[in-house]
Specification:
It is built from nine helices and 17 strands. The N and C termini lie far apart (about 55 Å). By secondary structure, it is of the alpha/beta class. It is elongated and about 65 Å long.
Length: about 300
């Protein structure tokens, strides 16, 4: 099949690679290069980088719905458009008469929106998955053509779940394209009564109050905030990022104080800190962290409050 691929984030890279190996990807449309890093160097998206490596023509329009861009993309005469984490809303005029599908990082209708993977981990869900849907006027509300599910491990971070879900993309997209080509593709209407929102993450959410939360909720939140915006707390007088934690079975709640074994109590239950990062420092195990900072054993673990917050 002749495919136009629209994407920007790393979530779509495995699917792009699979499509390039099986079909003719006539063009990739991605977001314009953006400043990145301390030097604010203009940097292409992960999709644009991989497309260039694969020798696929790349378009980087500021507005894909602008008339000339719209004509260019539609002019490729593709059999299908595959949209994954593109970052721009596609207009009705652009999509008119086009077979286009979107790979979304949740089991729809749950977690419609910008941060479905992070929100599922932060909410302590036992599983999540991907859905292939048609494009609709309302965000992520199209017909569901296929889904694939996977469990969320108790110690998994959002980044890890993201990467594993991305690997489900090639199979499920190929299944939908094959059924479309065979004329057997049928979509299911989403149950609006079960729809939930996955709003974009903000830096204002990047901490946790263990005196107010139980260990299960705190564990899910901390692991879900990894890697952006991260979960910053203060141990004694030192701001640190909690990168990964696990729940302690059979341990009761108590004051949130850092123990010599890396255990911190919550309002109910307790957690074991597995990975930690001093602000401005490098990630390390809790044993490495405490080896150089024994004075912090017995110190309170408090929410981080930014200056002026």
């Amino acid at each position: 099949m002749r495919i136009v691929f629209l994407g920007s984030g790393a979530f779509g890279v495995p699917t792009l690679e699979s499509l390039a190996a099986r079909h003719e990807v006539v063009a990739v449309v991605s977001q314009p290069d953006k400043p990145a890093g301390r030097g604010k160097v203009l940097t292409p998206t992960p999709i644009a980088v991989r497309a260039a490596e694969l020798g696929i023509p790349v378009l980087k329009p500021a507005d894909i719905n602008e008339a000339s861009v719209r004509e260019t993309v539609r002019g490729f005469g593709a059999d299908a458009w595959v949209v994954i984490a593109f970052g721009q809303k596609l207009s009705r005029e652009l999509l008119d008469g086009v077979f286009a599908v979107n790979l979304h990082g949740s089991l729809l209708p749950a977690y419609r929106g910008a941060a479905p993977i992070q929100r599922a981990v932060m909410d302590g869900c036992a599983e999540t998955g991907v859905s292939v849907i048609s494009l609709a006027e309302r965000m992520d509300a199209g017909f569901v053509f296929a889904t694939r599910a996977r469990a969320i491990g108790a110690r998994e971070t959002s980044d890890e779940v993201h990467d594993q879900l991305a690997l489900l993309g090639p199979e499920v997209i190929e299944d939908v394209l094959a059924r479309h080509a065979a004329g057997t593709l049928v979509g299911d209407v989403q149950d609006e009564s079960r729809a939930t929102r996955a709003r974009k993450l903000s830096k204002a959410e990047a901490t946790v109050d263990l005196a107010e939360l139980d260990a299960h909720t705190a564990r899910a939140r901390i692991n879900g905030l990894n890697s952006w915006p991260g979960c910053t707390v203060v141990i004694g007088d030192l701001p640190v990022k909690l990168l990964r934690v696990s729940e302690c079975e059979g341990v009761g709640g108590g004051p949130p104080v850092l123990g010599a074994d890396g255990v911190v109590h919550a309002r109910a239950g307790a957690m074991h800190i597995l990975e930690i990062q001093p602000v401005g420092g490098k990630p390390m195990t809790i044993a490495e962290f405490l080896n150089g900072r024994p004075r912090l054993v017995g110190c309170a673990v408090r929410p981080f409050v930014a200056a002026g917050g």
